Amino acid sequence: MTETKVKKTITKEKVVRLAITGSVLAVSVVLGFNCAPFAGRQAPSEMASESPLGIEPQLSVALMSSEQILKAMISATGTESLGAPTADDELISSTYTLRSGSLPSENSLKLATGPMLISVTNLASAVCNKAVNRDVATAEAQRASRLFFKEIDFSKGLSGQSSDSVTPAFERLARNAWRRDASNAEVDAIIEFAQEFSDGANANDPQQTRLMAVSICTAVLSSIDALTY
Questions:
Q1: Is-contact 120 100, C-beta < 8 A?
Q2: Helices (H), the chain
Q3: Which long-range contacts (CB under 8 A, 24 or more apart) does 78-86 make?
Q4: Where are the domains of the chain?
Q5: Cβ-count burial of 209 within 10 angstroms (0-12 exposed, 13-18 middle, 19+ buried)?
Q6: pLDDT in tens, 48-61
Q7: What is the CA radius of gyration of the chain?
Q8: What CA–CA distances, in Å, run from 137 to 131, 133, 153?
Q9: 163-178 and 66-77 are packed helices; what angle lies between their axes, rounded to 10 degrees?
Q10: Which of 63, 97, 120, 166 is deepest in the core (most CB within 10 A)?
């Protein structure tokens, strides 16, 4: 097993930027599509012809509303609140409230704007923070009981991880959020993504491993495949 050497330091700002590079859709281009934000889906003009009666054509793909997005993220990561709200639950709630003005109020694809996608990325990061904290809290000896990061050793830095530990976690997240299996190209992209995190002194910092996990999860939940149906 070849250990993955990671090359750049991750910051909270980079977690967001990596998920929205270019116009927020850059991560979505890699994680869920081939060459365009809605690649693999018909463009609106191709989905339905204009009705001679002036009736608006029905599209075969729709954007989730804000409430649907939150519920989908929580369901995909198994981060439902059980009992009294925790600090992680409060972060999700406060982020949702803070960003609600930019989240879509209905299901029109026209609402997929830059500000909306930035807000979605922030919300995804809060949800993923809880998902990763839950797995981190599960002792190394009980890794098999984790939901996603079963193969990752959170007691070690990124120099102690490998692509064989990143890939299964990504595939589990993608399957839950996208309702399909990740393609080989998407797996290759996430491995390259994971290799860019830190070098030198940071390579042995366990916190970098946690940040990598949050970032991968955020990228999956904020991609267009996770936001449409």
A1: no
A2: 12-20, 26-30, 44-47, 66-77, 87-99, 114-137, 163-178, 184-194, 206-221, 224-227
A3: 78/131, 78/134, 78/147, 79/127, 79/130, 79/131, 79/134, 86/130
A4: 12-227
A5: buried
A6: 334 444 555 554 58
A7: 18
A8: 10, 6, 12
A9: 140
A10: 120
